[in-house]
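// run 5 | inverse folding | seed 20
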């Protein structure tokens, strides 16, 4: 009997999210797959060239992709983001009613949750009427994310929203969690038997990359690269403070990516006179990103000092591991533990610029055998715990 899968997601190709890989997996297994998403407009806030503002129906491999009309994110301020989320919810709600009335039943509905939980209600309406299995892939632990970045400060409102999420969780058949530590929140909402630890994986271009023999020479300038979003959550201001405090200047920081905090961070770097040591680059595609990685001695990651982010493993962590380049982290909790426990590089707690400066100062003391061991540990951990083949089989087993 043919399997039919329906996916609700705010983001899809040509936007860069892991849901693209999931659709590839389903298509490779000849699963009848439909994707309901919005017009691509992330992260620039403008609808991509070649896409109609009124929505469309197109084919991606053998999947059918429904693009719903939305108000673009614009500059990413609270008003335009709210209008973007609300417009997608209204479009999705109406489209779900159409699916219920017109379309043949889908067996499974997968919710790719990266933003406000407005996808939940249409999905649960579909489940109630059509009796489909519903899987939540929860990548954003609302409402705690809002508290962590200071958007919501009222404990009463947080408690109300937490109660709402507890009800939501009980309606889903399976819940995929991106971090082991998220189980602490999930177990207050639902029986953990419903949940599955489902961490991110790296792109194939990184997975297939064979380790490059790179001799570590601390007498040469050490290259440390950060890739990804440059926003409030990443706390890159603490990185700048650490560079300012460091007594060693024989290293270069490369920040590759975009985000709402990029321009303000550039101003801070300029004001501190660190332009020669901290350099900015625009976002690039995966192949170009790999080139940056291969030129780097270390890869840097950080999240700000909040209870939720200490339980979060950034998506770039798996990509860093797959590339086989040691890691420097300014991060607490689960990621900090993984780096130390598996000897993947060096790390200190989130926000501790003084300790990070000491890590930078210690780079001149590393010998090549120590460096090579960290490199091989990164690749080994990725293959044993985070490879895409593991995730693919887990997800297919739930259908």
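// decoded
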């Amino acid at each position: 009997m043919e399997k039919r899968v329906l996916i609700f997601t705010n983001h899809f190709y040509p936007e860069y999210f892991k849901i693209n890989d999931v659709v590839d997996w389903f298509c490779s297994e000849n699963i009848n797959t439909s994707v309901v998403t919005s017009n691509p407009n992330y992260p620039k806030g403008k609808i991509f060239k070649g896409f109609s503002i009124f929505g469309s129906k197109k084919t991606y491999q053998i999947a059918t992709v429904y693009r719903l009309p939305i108000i673009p994110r614009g500059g990413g301020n609270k008003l335009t983001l709210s209008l973007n989320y609300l417009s997608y919810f209204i479009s999705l709600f109406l489209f779900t009613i159409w699916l219920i009335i017109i379309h043949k039943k889908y067996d499974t509905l997968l919710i790719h949750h990266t933003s406000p939980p407005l996808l939940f209600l249409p999905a649960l309406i579909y489940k109630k009427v059509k009796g489909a299995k519903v899987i939540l892939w929860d990548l954003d632990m609302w409402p705690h994310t809002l508290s962590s970045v200071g958007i919501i400060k009222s404990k009463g409102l947080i408690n109300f929203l937490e109660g709402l999420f507890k009800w939501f969780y009980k309606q889903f058949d399976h819940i995929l969690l991106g971090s082991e530590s998220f189980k602490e929140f999930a177990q207050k909402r639902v029986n953990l038997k419903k949940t599955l630890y489902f961490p991110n994986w790296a792109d194939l271009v990184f997975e297939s990359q064979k380790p490059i023999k790179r001799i570590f020479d601390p007498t040469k300038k050490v290259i440390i690269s950060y890739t990804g979003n440059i926003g409030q959550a990443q706390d890159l201001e603490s990185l700048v403070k650490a560079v300012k405090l460091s007594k060693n200047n024989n290293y270069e920081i490369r920040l590759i990516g975009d985000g709402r905090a990029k321009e303000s961070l550039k101003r801070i770097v300029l004001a501190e006179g660190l332009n020669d040591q901290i350099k900015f680059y625009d976002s690039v595609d995966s192949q170009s990103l790999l080139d940056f990685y291969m030129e780097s001695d270390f890869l840097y990651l950080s999240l700000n000092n909040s209870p939720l982010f200490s339980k979060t493993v950034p998506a770039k962590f798996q990509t860093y591991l797959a590339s086989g380049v040691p890691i420097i982290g300014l991060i607490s909790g689960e990621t900090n533990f993984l780096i130390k426990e598996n000897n993947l590089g060096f790390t200190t707690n989130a926000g501790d610029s003084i300790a990070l400066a000491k890590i930078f100062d210690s780079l001149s003391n590393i010998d090549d055998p120590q460096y090579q061991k960290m490199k091989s540990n990164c690749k080994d951990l990725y293959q044993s715990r985070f490879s895409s083949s593991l995730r693919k089989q887990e997800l297919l087993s739930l259908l």
